[in-house]
Amino acid sequence: MENLDILVLRALRNWRTAGKRALLATVVRTWGSSPRPAGSIMTLCEDGAVVGSVSSGCIEDDLIYRFTRAYSGKQPGHEIPIGPPGFVKYGMTADEAHRFGLPCGGTLELLLEYDPDAGSLAQLVEALETGRLMRRSVRLSDGAVTQAEAEAPEALTVDATELVNTFGPEYRMLLIGAGQLAECLATMALFSGFSVTVCDPREEYRGAWSVAGATVVSDMPDDVVLVFKPDGRSCVVALTHDPKLDDLALLEAVNTKAFYVGAIGSRRNNEARHQRMREYFDLKPADLERLRGPIGVYIGSKTLPEIAVSIMAEILAVKNGVALPRDMEVAEAKNQLALRANDPDGIVCGVSAQRGAG
């Protein structure tokens, strides 16, 4: 599944290019609990088709009812308006919050843009599809749009004169190894909005790959990392258990801006990897701190799908800026389990065991 913003903007572009009337709804403010954060977008076509989300569904239904003929025939007043953007609030009263499925105390405000220009939408979608980060500004007095490439993601801002929202390219995942674990992880990454590239020079693994939507390449991992050019919206995950492949990718990846670089393996394998990289490749402690391993969060996973869930959970936590408790790290959790196994009564390591139990 592609990045949701790109899906929304592409659908809106297609509708407007085809001459259909449509609106773009953007969450601009929230108070209390809200189903979707500020900056979330959805688009609504004149025939009632919707792509994207600004709530759990009820607000979308209300917008369809208010601005299309889907539920009301051709009655006047049920079509998309003409003119400058307008604001609308939901959840101002307890009854309205209940009606629209908003959490207790939740309120959100939307900006509705009517019939955005097809040409500027085409330029925006093309830029996003080619991996550029874009800043889109909307003048509230008349809906005029200006767009420019941005250097870094920015939170949505809105004042009396304009709304500014930043749209970024897809998050990307580079997997080293095309085995079954990679297939599980690629599947989860794709429906989480990542584009996925899989690198494996071993023909016997590439030939068995079965996940549609991922790009599979056969070059050596270090060359693939250089071509991939990991940025702040990229992660690199080594899954082969073969140092000749994993280490090549990791050595290049730790020197990039990738938000996550890690490798599968046991605690012992992870220590051996660090030792190799210190002794043979002169990696500094700061470089090794960027290298995660054993990867994943500890959930007692045994099967490959469960291990993939564990890894994907950690990647998403890092992406979203969530600091996980140390006890959830695989190495720390297994160290605590080993301590408990050697000291079941907790006489020697009671404090550590209690901390591990969370």
TrEMBL record:
InterPro entries: MoCofactor_Util/Proc, XdhC_CoxI, XdhC_Rossmann_dom. This is XdhC family protein. Residues 15-72 form the XdhC- CoxI domain. It comes from Aromatoleum buckelii. Signal peptide: none annotated. The lineage of its organism: Bacteria, Pseudomonadati, Pseudomonadota, Betaproteobacteria, Rhodocyclales. PANTHER family: ALDEHYDE OXIDOREDUCTASE MOLYBDENUM COFACTOR ASSEMBLY PROTEIN, MOLYBDENUM COFACTOR INSERTION CHAPERONE PAOD. Residues 173-315 form the XdhC Rossmann domain.
